[in-house]
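Example record

Each entry pairs one chain with its bound ligand, zinc ion.
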Amino acid sequence: MKKWQVGKFVVTEVPEFQIAVGLLDGVIAEATPEVVRAIGWMHPDYATESGQTLWDVHSYVVDTGDQVILIDAGCGNGKSYPMQPSWSGLDTPFLERLEQAGYGREDIDIVLCTHLHLDHVGWCAMKNDEGHWVPTFPNARVTLVQAEYDRHLSQLLSPEEEEATAGAGPDADPIARAFMADEVSLSKQTRLIQHETFEPIVEAGLLELVPTNGEVVPGVRYEETLGHTAAHHSVRLTSEGESAFVTGDFIHHPMQIARPEWSSKGDWSPEASGRNRRAFFEACAGTNLLILGTHFTGPGAGYIVSDGDGFRLAENEPS
Ligand SMILES: [Zn+2]
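Structure tokens for the complex follow.
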């Protein structure tokens, strides 16, 4: 398992699954195979030889020495995801891998989610032996940014509103269904996520809402990175003079390091997303800020350096 030291914090990547090659083709419209092939550092870590982008789903465990924090909670097992049917009903050994990393379910003290899309929250709850949804991490408070939780809930329509509005229908193409969903599909998906993932947390009294840019524990802080959603936050880790940055979907794929303005389909604001990425890269290029990419394959992490009009992810810390 990939591991990094950030000051006295130990960060471990816990894999959930590799996304099937091709499933997310077209999510970044400009990133055609020809263009991806032309960016030398994409293959083999972040794209196939033919230029199809590679993605995975994973979580990070940050062990501060005092607290054990899980950042982003993947899709989870056995969930209902009509917007992304291939991630419904999963049965991955995520918890076994967490165990291999040295952490049982009871060891997690805090769960953070960069945003509340279905592939970042699933493991907040799991089905118990009686078939009920219960908190996966019985001792963990799930600490979310209030504005992002409100945004998620605002997608719920009343049954009457759902009835009165037409949905996308079963033949919408998979990218459109997952990333540009109509409001009825979004509402139904949001209700399922509430039922299967957040209601068990709320009922157990484990949900904690924090303000925008909120610090969670010393050295672990949400950092607003708007664009992918209207209240998306990345997470900044700081310990003993070293720092790291967990991207969430602010940097959805490393292609967006090479071409910061290329946004993902379904971004709440493609324009803000691109503008905020470029500003972020300009601020951290050449520094020793470790970038931990939430959907990044290959080494999964690196340092931003300037590269022509764009940037590149370098494996080695700039000297
Ligand atoms: Zn997302």
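The first strand starts at residue 3 and ends at 6.
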